[in-house]
Design brief:
3-stranded antiparallel sheet, TIM Barrel, 377 residues, 6-stranded parallel sheet, alpha/beta, 16 strands, homodimer
Chain lengths: 377, 377
């Protein structure tokens, strides 16, 4: 019988770790990057092509799927894996983040969050119990507890209240959980070390298969985020996967892996691909820029889209062609997975610090600005 | 040394023929359907996936490519095949049709057509010589003569004048042609048998590798089009490929093949795919229709997208997901190629009439209308 959930660490390098999560639907090499499949599709990608970029697991969004096509409908159609044609692990978020950021008229009470759909204005109530039920209906391999989010700029009192409610909701999520997969708890507490510590303690008391750092990457900036991870990550158990939600840019990933994070998800590689931003070892570039109009070189000689020139991608994206979104997305997902593989290799070799230094020396986080940067867009 | 251009007919069945066109870049099985790759991409498809549907040749549009990214630019980047990553034959149209239908302020003179780009209003002149030059710069395998089009509803006098000018332009196109591939002439003359005969005579006098029937599928309806083909197709040489431009719906293809047509191109399978129409042996269907919301069956068990249910495609298209356009397009291109293969097999077996009768008995050309047909769109 396959493992329900087992995490083994094969090597460490400083605070960084590399290992494997073993689950019934497959293995997840860590540190892992999870492409986001919001509406039962990693946008502009077939599942087989997502897998070919090196992804071991993808993420599905409870908020989007509960509204369209509906969790019960997906369950009747055999679950999310069969519905979308992805047979490896899927992590589902709880809807907590998106119900606050996307829905209309969200009203939080101890029971849960009442809100209006951003699609049609229909009224819904999302509670810890309903969130866990939806994730079970979807057939999630890794479910997340339902939590309440407040901005990192909120008062300490508001931060504390939201964190404490999230811990009560974590308890209710655990009690409601009867899935065959795993359940992760989510640490909250903003940028406050003591709130983060209290949150971690509460979660450890409940006991989860893995622990997420929530409430970051919401505008606080990379320096503040990494400073928070300096104390937040070690507060979470060493023998369980640590998942930094919603992060991030390639340089964010390097910084977070060095601080002991094992899992990431972010829309950046897919969303950027659709708008013409490509990630490379030299940093992001905007393929719409006129300097690429006759550039016959590929984005990267190892990329799965190396058969096409930057000039061709420039043409496709400028022309609004769907194939442009397809190829740019595939490149970016490949780049993210290549970066994760490079970090796993460096940790195993004990050379992560050297890798990070080399990476930082070459990678320019901000796209090169030309004389007329917006002329082409 | 590979053939420049050789057409062999392997079997006939009534007026229908099946055979092979042999060219340096590969063989084209006839009757052939050519997917349209307007802007150096068959929309929402990678070249390898286009090939996997069974396509031997695709079409590129001179008008679109001359405006963006420009013929000289494509030539500097190694030609259209290298630019887009398709190494098999490409037929290019001459721009004659689209310069009249898409550009602004088109002004026709004996020299050619002066027009303003629909993209940026820039002024251009397209002549037979420039059209042929552009097609050579693109690296076309089959180039088309530059012609003048008038609606089939124009007066006979206008039809005659446009046809006669097109024949003078065909002569100029032939004189200008120095490509390594083939050159096809285009018959004009609207729905008039004598004009069509005069056009065919003029083209045969010039001598082309193949002959296209132009000026049809512009709103005259299927009955009028097939009635025209009854006389127009036999006017063209039996030993050369006959190409019906811009056609058509699956039932159009069956009718035209029975009248001796060997080649087709049409945006319908790709464009329909992007708007949610799928072609099946039972006729077209609108995947957005609510009756597919929980339909767990595939569009066709043999389709390359048979791994996904109609319910999933319904969800993707309703949600505006790029993957919906990708999978629907792939299905439709596969269906078109499957239909051509079925006709080639039937002709070889001498059973095309029986095939056409079976096809017509099952195929409903108009999508099934439900009680509230537009509710879902």
């Amino acid at each position: 019988m396959p493992d329900r959930f087992a995490f083994s660490i094969d090597a460490t390098d400083g605070k960084a770790r590399t290992g494997v999560i073993r689950m019934a639907r497959g293995e997840i090499r860590t540190p892992a990057f999870m492409p986001v499949g919001t509406a039962a599709t990693v946008k502009a990608m077939r599942p087989a092509d997502v897998r070919a970029t090196g992804a071991d697991i993808i993420l599905g969004n409870t908020y989007h799927l509960m509204l369209r096509p509906g969790a019960e409908r997906i369950a009747r159609l055999g679950g999310l894996h069969a519905f979308m044609g992805w047979d490896r692990p899927i992590l589902t978020d709880s809807g907590g983040y998106q119900v606050m950021s996307l829905s209309d008229l969200a009203k939080v009470s101890e029971e849960g969050v009442a809100f209006a759909s951003h699609l049609d204005g229909s009224r819904h109530l999302l509670t810890p119990e309903r969130s866990i039920e939806i994730q079970r209906l979807l057939g999630s391999d890794i479910a997340m507890t339902f939590d309440e989010l407040v901005p990192t700029t909120a008062s300490r009192g508001a931060q504390a209240q939201a964190m404490e409610r999230s811990m009560r909701w974590a308890r209710r999520s655990k009690d409601a959980f009867a899935g065959e997969g795993a359940l992760f708890g989510i640490q909250q507490g903003g940028l406050d070390e003591r709130l983060r510590a209290a949150s971690a303690e509460a979660l450890i008391e409940i006991d989860f298969d893995g622990y997420a750092v929530g409430g970051l990457a919401v505008g606080e900036g990379q320096a503040a985020m990494l400073a928070c991870l300096d104390f937040a990550a070690p507060q979470l158990p060493e023998d369980r996967p640590r998942y930094l939600m919603g992060v991030g840019k390639p340089d964010d990933l390097v910084g977070a892996v060095m601080r002991g994070i094992d899992m990431f998800d972010c829309v950046l590689p897919t969303r950027s691909g659709r708008t013409g931003q490509a990630f490379t070892w030299d940093g992001p570039l905007n393929i719409r820029n006129a300097r690429f109009a006759e550039d016959a070189t590929p984005l990267d000689p190892e990329s799965p889209v190396a058969g096409w020139s930057k000039a061709y991608l420039h043409h496709l994206v400028r022309s609004g062609e769907i194939l442009g979104a397809m190829l740019m997305t595939e490149h970016n997902l490949w780049f993210y997975q290549r970066l994760m593989q490079a970090m796993r290799d460096a940790i195993a070799a004990g050379s992560l610090v050297a890798f990070a230094a080399e990476f930082a020396a070459r990678y320019r986080p901000v796209p090169r600005v030309t004389a007329a940067p917006n002329r082409d867009s």
